[in-house]
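Late entry, evening session. Most of the bench is empty. Finally got around to the prediction I had been postponing all week. Sequence below, unchanged from the version circulated by S.P.
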Amino acid sequence: MEISRGEDKGFEIKQHGNKIGITKLFKAWIMSAKDLDGADSSVKMERAKLASNIIALRRGRQKKMNIEMTSVLTKGWDASGTGAGSPTPYGKALFATDHPVRSGELSFDNTVTSDGVLTKTRLQTALNKQKAELMLQNGDRIMTPSSYKLVVSRKGAVAAREILNTA
């Protein structure tokens, strides 16, 4: 379900989840703060079911995140798609090379390469671009994070390790 939309920022925050309910007997056992040794068998079964549901919810969250991120990376080059990675509010694909700023007064490029080849120079170029060039559509600079998470394809993983494990 959609929770909110950032004003003039062009992003959406989505929340995905499932409701997990418990019985009154299980709630009473939880409130009693007793261990499972003397608990009723139905309480033990419900506790096991709750643990299983929580694990399934965590796995589902991870799977949904992987699906969304793959969609962003796949559709981010195409201005004709819809959904994750689709055109930004001003009609450009997420990874377009000419994002307009302040009604077209300026534009910026948020990509380094489209061929997927990672090199030390391209990685440094991407970091420099993030620090100095990326903006929101209203012209505000994007905050530089204190740390980065590098997302690479399997093909680029070896090169990424070599780059990051050097002095």
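Two things to note before I forget:
Strands lie at 2-5, 12-14, 99-101, 106-108.
Helices lie at 24-32, 41-75, 120-132, 154-164.
Will write this up properly tomorrow.
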